[in-house]
Amino acid sequence: MHRILAPALLALAASALAADPPAGPAAAHPAPAKRPLAALPYTPGLDLSAMDRTADPCVDFFAYTCGTWTKTNAIPPDQAAWGVYAKLQDENEQFLWGILEEASRLPDAQRTPAQRRVGDYFASCMDEAAVEAAGAKPLARDLAAISRLRSKADLAGLLGGIDPTLAAAGLVFGFGSEQDYANTDAIIGVLAASGLGLPDRDYYVKDDPRSKETQEKYVEHLARVLGLLGDPAPRSTETARTAMSIETALAKASLTRVDKRDPYKVYHRMDVAALVKLAPSLRWKDYFARQGVPRLVTLNVSEPAFVQEVDKLVREQPLEAWKAWLRVRVAMLRSPFLSRPFQKEHFAFHRAYLNGVKEELPRWKKCVRWVDRDLGFELGKVFVAKVFPPAAKEEAAALVQNVEKATEARFTKLDWMGEATKAQALAKLHAMRNKIGYPEKWRDYSRLAVVRGDFAGNVARALRFENDRQLAKIGKPVDRGEWEMTPPTVNAYYNPTMNDMNFPAGILLPPLFDLRLDLAPAYGNTGGTVGHELVHGFDDEGRNFDAKGNLRDWWTKEDAAAFEERARCVSDQYAQYTIVDEIKINSKLTLGEDIADLAGVLAAWDAWKLATAGRKLEPRDGLTPEQRFFVGYAQWACGSVRPEALRVRAATDPHSPYWARVNGVMVNVPAFREAFGCKVSQPMAPRAEVCRIW
Asked: Are strands 639-641 and 493-495 parallel, antiparallel or unpaired?
């Protein structure tokens, strides 16, 4: 759940081809009917009913804290996974559903401009008759443009024109803006690798039986998408194989997810003239002009080898091959927003086959999520006013400050870090900004045209609006108050180039942050989250950025080696855990999150002690205060994942499985052993040599 923020332009990709992406309404097996919530339900921050007290906490702490929850909360048929975070997000969405229903039905005279935008967007999305009547017509303009291509010289201009209106990072490239890693006061363009329809580049390059099956299923999926466009069977299969060959070449030239975690491997600042030399077969002037930045001078080409491979493919592949692939890729990316046949095909492969999902999401949920994606800060403003009072923000701010104080004390006492590096670490900690609940300045959507009855058009215009908003930042002062997550989101993030922590209101609600209970579970849960995000600034990735967010090595050679030795302890531990079948955790991919989990709970523990100093703490519900802290921490992770989705996550998710994020942490926390009286011989008892960094 917790994560380091990806570049802003890549956020769009998650909405279309993520592990559990939006899909169309149900057909033969509709999801259980729900109704909008008039108010959010209350679940306590320490849920006794979730626990299985027949389990031994010293043998399996996850089972002890979450055993009953997982038994009584089966994964819904329209989900790939289900957990405490997902349940709270679902409740938030039901509540937003009611807000949107009201906004869509009120007469114009009774609606504010914001209500008109979100209400009309939602109404157009829910108007399934209009969506069905439109069929594949929303694709017509782009398909015609592809068909008109007469020369590969015109390819770059075509890509630049279509990319901003796709619900993904782009057809071949993802283009947007980001802070310059070398000078985070400046905003430059960024060109990223894209072009893959499968969840990860490894899906194309592996040759084991399961991978080969998935590759063949993907070709069949592409052929069926082409069939929906009217292509006859023999030609559609041939075209799908051509598309697969192009994507396989792109995949082989793409960085692995582990490599992408190294900021030095994804930062290659150059001017446009250097890009032209790197890939001369593409008319970059046309591409940037169609994107709306004809005077672009400097950008980060995150994966130069990928760009060179695209250039090679442009030279070697015939024009018709490019046209065929672009045609199916446009259709595939837009399928969730088209008529039922496209939605069903998208669901059948991306959610049912890859992730084991049994039923499609109900239409209302799709529409709520799309409004949140495209107009989320307008919708979030209403959400905050209804569920997140000023007192909650003040309490959360106090908790964050205590975690920071505890972390400072921990840093000061480090025995493996020299004074020079320690001074830099403390400077970074002191410079870290905290964003709690919602932005101080709300995003302005007044220039976004929303047309009732034109859902696909609204999607395209919203994505173009966001693309233009991102590109308009280039060359402008950095807005350090900007948020990348909307207020209703049940998640949090640390941004290394901003050097800030961001906690949306959605994650500061019960059962995650519960002001009705004692501080122990609150500090265990939300305190652990705060500590987790803070430590992302000092994990194996975040430690490469300084107090200003610049990519700079501020470590002495000796201290860097000491950090890497301690990080290796964590990596070696998690590499032993099995995710599903024979698949082990890719601990090099999950290292940052695993470090943050461990150091985060230690910081939260110290912060709780600081917040309750001098108070007499009493047992409650058969648990000591210390036990309540650890149960509160663990219960954020109550949940389960379908086996198919676990396989996808093993390749794509930088987070370890739920149970490992609990049990894997506790074996490194001596205070846990003391709290539950674990014997040295028991599985959950911390080892003699625990992993410890911060």
From this structure: unpaired
